[in-house]
Design goal:
single chain, alpha/beta, Rossmann fold, 3 domains, seven-stranded mixed beta sheet, three-stranded antiparallel beta sheet, 11 helices
């Protein structure tokens, strides 16, 4: 805190320690001047006190309003899709249309997500709960993020929806402060997406997550004022510990995203490649526990490298089975 010197106009009836009419401000004497400190309005440059105290107070009030306005411009929760940056604030991001192929797991989860918003008023009235949090885990490439993007596109059909995307290393203290502030008045429900929650650090063999996320997920009083759905993804569920995986008040449900069935893989390949698979091609894709990412890569190799689809699928599977470092 920088000191701010006030020019003393009169010493009559002034005692050291007397409060000035500025909240949280006291002073001491030095060389016939009053030195103030602990001013609520934040750090201010050293300068002489204006002739009129009212002018000084008005200036500080103006600065306070400017700071509040700047905060709202950068950090206020608004409708639409925004990426959260702890320094830059919210940045709008596009949510483009993309092909989405449902699986048994995705149908189950999408129903859970939609039901929360459909029943949110009832749940809040009966249980005083405005938040529902899901932790989605799987091996890499199972389509967790694609499913969440699909759900967000559906949610945005409701104009009163705010979608916030953050990384797993998010500043939860800052995020908590933002959620405690006033939302934009048209925000009636929120979807918060936290990707790569609990990233694995192989150098230290530990899972990285900010412990302040525990308080955020617990939800201090008034933190979640509108129905808020939190969707987190991780590839390292086994490393997070019971403080996250066995506390329903934090994550209400832990869901494993299973690989698609053979029939679901066939549907994905036929839809993406716009072809009808032959029996030989189906054989190349069946019984492999193939992820959506693997299936799409086989399609791309078929197109780009001009090799048979069966060969592309076999190559992708051989490469997968030869790599064990990510397991």
């Amino acid at each position: 805190m920088k000191y701010h010197k006030l020019k003393i106009l009169s010493t009559k009836n002034i005692e050291e320690g007397l409060e000035l009419p500025v909240t949280g401000t006291s002073f001491s004497f030095h060389e016939d001047k009053i030195i103030t400190y602990a001013i609520d309005y934040g750090e201010i440059e050293q300068k002489e006190m204006p002739n009129e105290l009212d002018e000084f107070l008005k200036e500080q009030e103006k600065k306070k309003k400017e700071q509040e306005y700047e905060f709202k411009q950068k950090f206020q929760i608004r409708c639409g899709v925004n990426f959260f940056d702890a320094t830059e604030g919210f940045r709008p991001i596009p949510l483009k249309e993309e092909k989405f192929f449902e699986t048994k797991t995705s149908r189950f989860m999408l129903k859970l997500f939609n039901n929360f918003f459909k029943k949110s008023t009832f749940i809040n009235n009966k249980f005083q709960k405005n938040k529902r949090a899901y932790l989605l885990h799987s091996d890499p490439g199972m389509g967790k993020s694609a499913m969440i993007r699909h759900f967000c596109r559906q949610s945005l059909k409701h104009e009163e929806t705010a979608v916030i995307q953050v990384g797993g290393d998010v500043d939860f203290q800052k995020l908590t402060n933002i959620f405690l502030q006033e939302y934009s008045e048209d925000v009636k429900r929120i979807v918060l997406i936290i990707e790569d929650f609990g990233k694995r650090d192989y150098a230290t063999n530990v899972s990285i997550y900010n412990p302040s996320c525990l308080n955020f997920l617990d939800g201090v009083s008034g933190l979640f004022r509108v129905p808020t759905l939190i969707l987190c993804t991780t590839n390292f569920i086994e490393h997070l510990g019971p403080q996250l995986t066995n506390r329903p008040g934090r994550f209400n449900r832990i869901v494993r995203v299973e690989p698609p069935t053979d029939e679901e893989v066939f549907e994905l390949v036929e839809g993406m490649a716009e072809i009808k698979l032959t029996p030989e091609q189906k054989m190349a894709f069946s019984g492999k526990n193939m992820t959506p990412d693997h299936a799409i890569e086989a399609i791309l190799r078929n197109e780009i490298e001009e090799i048979p689809l069966e060969q592309a699928a076999q190559e992708v599977m051989r490469e997968r089975d030869g790599l064990t470092s990510w397991r």
